[in-house]
Amino acid sequence: MSVITPHCHLLRSPKRTRHALGAAAATTTTIPKLTSTGPSLRSTWPHRFWVATGCATFLTPIAKSITISLTSNSALEPILAAVLGYALADLATGFYHWAIDNYGGPSTPLVGSQIQAFQGHHKWPWTITRREFANNLHALGRSLTFTVIPLDLVAGDNAAALSFIGVCSGCIMFSQQFHAWAHSTKRRLPPAVVALQDAGLLVSRAGHAKHHRAPFNNNYCIVSGMWNEVLDEMKVFEVLEMVVFFKLGVRPRSWSEPSSEWTEEEVEVEAEIKDPVVSKVV
Ligand SMILES: [Zn+2]
Ligand SMILES: [Zn+2]
């Protein structure tokens, strides 16, 4: 008789260090030739097109909501709906980020390229700061275009619903920009962005850094990060991983022993910090 043995952090707490993981990875991975002008980091016209359509998709309901509110002198509900949209966007990015970090692969329909991109991000986190704007946001812009336009139509002239849809989807689309800012050094960021991070309105560098450290199973939310503490303290994702494992027999990647998919190439990161110009052509 076989015995099912889940490999979950609910059941054990592996003592893994980032340095040890980096050393393990260094023996099994090849340092990529990433350049700031290379095709994988640059924005293309299709990227810009999908970012433009995504922006139009979330800005249109916001503009419509403002117009309706001004003509009806009733702004309280749309404002509350916008706050709710902002808060739930953070929660949504947490669940989505957890799902694509842990399940599926490059061949998964619809989201395979995003799964591959996030796996690459765990190995070389700093590269997100070198991605051009549209290159970083185009996948979410395209998803938004196809999923939110029908919601805009359903909302009709309901100002609160339009406000919620616009703000929530806009925060989700720009979560990858907030994520990139969380990987940047403060001196490279506009003062307003640093102020928003320090105020807790955008995901902070310190908060997101925990996501890239062992045990690699927390801090998934990347809009404001307001849900990270409660989700991690309640072990929401670890419970979900157990449910998926016992129902479907699928292990999340976060249960795996240290491997190149989850570890950071420290050599490359150190090169980036010491000499960003040299690292462009490594
Ligand atoms: Zn991740
Ligand atoms: Zn990251």
From TrEMBL:
<comment type="similarity">
    <text>Belongs to the fatty acid desaturase CarF family.</text>
</comment>
<protein>
    <recommendedName>
        <fullName>Lipid desaturase domain-containing protein</fullName>
    </recommendedName>
</protein>
<dbReference type="InterPro" id="IPR052864">
    <property type="entry name" value="Chloroplast_FAD_CarF"/>
</dbReference>
<keyword id="KW-0812">Transmembrane</keyword>
<keyword id="KW-0472">Membrane</keyword>
<dbReference type="InterPro" id="IPR019547">
    <property type="entry name" value="Lipid_desat"/>
</dbReference>
<feature type="domain" description="Lipid desaturase">
    <location>
        <begin position="86"/>
        <end position="255"/>
    </location>
</feature>
<keyword id="KW-1133">Transmembrane helix</keyword>
<dbReference type="GO" id="GO:0016020">
    <property type="term" value="C:membrane"/>
</dbReference>
<dbReference type="Pfam" id="PF10520">
    <property type="entry name" value="Lipid_desat"/>
</dbReference>
